[in-house]
């Protein structure tokens, strides 16, 4: 509508200046028409530059996301953008069996990680420009500024059992876990830890059944693995 007003002002100024013979009337009407055109142009510029007649509206959506890696080592990864390391892209999966990894957006987006005891999910807050009223939309709708994207903020709620690592840390972890010497060392330490646990339990209960011993071995193995993972993560996060 504002563009139509601008065009009308220009056309009327031309008509009044050319076709009205009375100079005082012609000049007066031409000046008023030009004023209409100028005012229309000012509001067009204000709408384009300052988003006059508009407001920022934020909507919120939530989706479940899944960590990458194995069941023993579930991870959400992040990759710093630029050299200042002020912004990161977070890498995850959209489903448990997804073949392709997904990541947060790279531009006009901020991310925050919150560790939780609940499910891992991401809340996205998207801000866009919208018209303040139907009247504002009528006047400035032709500008195409409505629903224009402003910014995005992702909050990643990550279960405490999932590790949040940088891509570089994940690479170091993979290299360490693939080391034959480290695996041999880990195997020997694990065997010694489990044996010690079983011996201590047998000392307290010499008549322990085979089923109870097997259960104890399983528990001790899981405990050692958890501690080993904790130690590895502490090393790569230094």
Describe this structure in words.
The structure is a single chain. With 238 residues, the protein is an alpha+beta fold. The chain folds into 3 domains: 2-50; 56-165, no CATH class; 179-236, no CATH class. Helices cover 49% and strands 27% of the residues. The chain is built from 6 helices and 9 strands, in the order ααβββββββαββααα. The strands form 2 sheets. Strands 2, 3, 4, 5 and 9 form a 5-stranded mixed beta sheet that branches. It has a 4-stranded mixed beta sheet with strand order 1-7-8-6. β3 and β4 (87-92) form a beta hairpin. α1 runs antiparallel to α2. The longest helix has 28 residues, at 23-50. The model has no long low-confidence stretch (mean pLDDT 88). This is DUF4811 domain-containing protein. The chain crosses the membrane at residues 5-21, 27-45. It comes from Lentilactobacillus buchneri DSM 20057. It holds the Pfam family DUF4811. Keywords: Membrane, Transmembrane, Transmembrane helix.
